[in-house]
Amino acid sequence: MNREHPPRRVRLIGVPMDLGQILRGVDVGPSALRYAGLAERLEGLGYQVEDQGNIDAAVRATIPHGHDLIGPIRATCEALYVAVQTAVDDACLPIIMGGDHSIAIGSVGGVTHRESAGVLWIDAHADFNTPASSPSGNIHGMPLAVLCGHGPAALVNVGRPGPKIHPNDVAIIALRSTDAAERRQLLESHVGVYTMRDIDELGIASVTRSALKRLSGHRRIHVSFDADSIDPMFAPGVGTPVPGGLSTREAHLLMEIVAEDGRVASVSVVEINPILDERNRTAQLAAELLASLLGKTIL
After folding, report:
1. pLDDT (tens digit, 9 = 90+) per residue, 116-129?
2. Phi, psi of 205 (to 5 degrees)
3. pLDDT confidence of 4, banded at 50, 70, 90?
4. Where does the pLDDT of residue 76 fall: very low under 50, low under 70, confident under 90, or very high at 90 and above?
5. Would the pTM count as exceeding 0.70?
6. Which residues are catalytic?
7. 64-75, pLDDT tens digit by residue?
């Protein structure tokens, strides 16, 4: 269902932040995507591509050991919120290149500043932990909960006070790893969830169309793509790999169906870790998938 064509102007926004988790390397994710030729792929599809460069993010090595990371994460997400809001106001389609998934606090916030949006959360993890439920305490496992209003007030109130989305606004696709307390919180929230079992039983096309139908009340959709949604056989460059994920072809078909829907207004791609990758394979695949999401087809 084509409701409207996405803006033909794309604005790339890099967010080299690795503060939401333990492993180093995701801060190089924006450079890996640029090196993979993301801009050139999109220009080949007829888009006018503007690269805004990178949002300032604190360097982990400069933060004293044991120091609270919420402040630096909040600062980066506040700046990202403004950058994304500005891109939307400028009639650009923002592509936010992370960095770890905690940057979603700023990107989804900015996207929804003036108008609500449905959120496709393509991820092996639910990211619905809070400090009370998280075994690790890592913020990159909490952004979806934060966006729904749960968690540290300093993060919930980034950009504007309170929740940025409602659980009814969200559909998670490719879920296959949750923590025990997180699972309970997720079920109680009534967020839309499509696990890998659903994909195995129903097929990726059926699951994708069901997720889009769930978000049918929204004029715009934000796609939050975590590279660990892909099986590590195809995307080894991630910090929290979970076997049994999407195949390359399933991921392309998912993106193609979402593209045909016509409501994609913003995209983020996160958790690419070139240090753990094999010759930039994961960033190359992510760039190819983003091209599919923005209209590249076989014929």
Report:
1. 999 999 999 999 99
2. -65, -45
3. very low
4. very high
5. yes
6. 101, 123, 125, 127, 140, 226, 228, 271
7. 887 889 999 999
